[in-house]
Amino acid sequence: MENPYSGSYQDGFGNRIHVLAAANPAHYYGKTTYHGSPLLHDRGAGYGIIRFNKSNRSTTFECWPRYAGPNGSQYPGWPVTIRQTENEGRDPVGYLPVIDTGEASDPVVRVIDESSQELVFGYRVHGNRFRPPVYAAGRTYRVEVIPTDEAAVQVTSGVVASAIPAHSIQQFEGAGRYAVRGRPFRLRWDCTSAASIVINQEVGNVTARTLHGIGHVDVTPQSDTTWTLTSTSPSGPVLQAQVSVRVFPAMADWRSASFSAMDLADPAKEATVWGDGADPDGDGLCNAAEYAAQTPPQSGARLDVLRSEISTVVVSTTTEQHPVHVLRELLSEAGYGYEAQRSEDLTDWKMIPWSDLREIHRESGAPGQTDRVTYEVVTSVAEETLVRKKSFHRVILKPVAAP
Length: 403
Hints:
single chain; mainly beta; four-stranded antiparallel beta sheet; 30 strands
């Protein structure tokens, strides 16, 4: 039974209407449904269901006949799915600079035309990055970012739009170099002017998850994985980018692999052998810290995790000495982190920001290991002595709130 009512129309007041689907009584078409009483089932009896998919910003409208069972079919032409942006009805003429809210996720973004003080749009951003579209050229805009945690509204005035960018992959990255098996791992992308965006490894087409070029998806890799993103422009050319992650076991699996079944079955050994706070090899690192660094908990090799020293660097014709720290990178979900500190008397230690250090070398970890990274204190020893008589540097490993 075909539906002759779909299409574009104007109502009696001249309003434009686009009908995507309709479910009219069967006798309008001179037919019957052959389901029970025609007085009931041939008159379009039934019910509707609306499903909202927040992850890809889509809404699905379903229209079911009354006689349809659990395995039945909807009325012809149904269901109908539309994306949030399809309600826009306007085509962007340019974009404002990308908004990146860092750790603050899912803020509301409002854009106001400063010439008319009219609201251009308001979006609940999914994630922490958003490229605001504009629909009029040659104007300035006020951008308001409203966090979800009731923090202060961030307002930027006098923002000018840029032209619609050419097809490109501005970003394709993972949440980090490492993932924990079975835990969500976020892939993020920014593909400008793309008609289609596809990620392999069974992720599939993520165009519906993309808003003005930017999107993300959570995956759960079970082993070391490389994803390839393919971005296709409306005219056909294809661009690709890749991101890889090394996958490590969850804490329970690591513990099972590190200690004997006999020890794990003995509750009395939790405090001294296999528990999170135990330090069976006496190296000063408890099992939870050893797990964070993915080092053997019974090796006694503390230097495999971190060490500090003085290095000599030749810069042009000048020789400089800098404090350096060699660190085994940590799994971010393990609940441990490093803190760089400075002291003048070896008693009063003060934290120094990581912006005061720079990465100068990275050694890729062997299978089952994270990378070993060398950080250098930006200020040289000679420069420090101009400010303070003595300066001692160290890095400590400490519990932190897991993300």
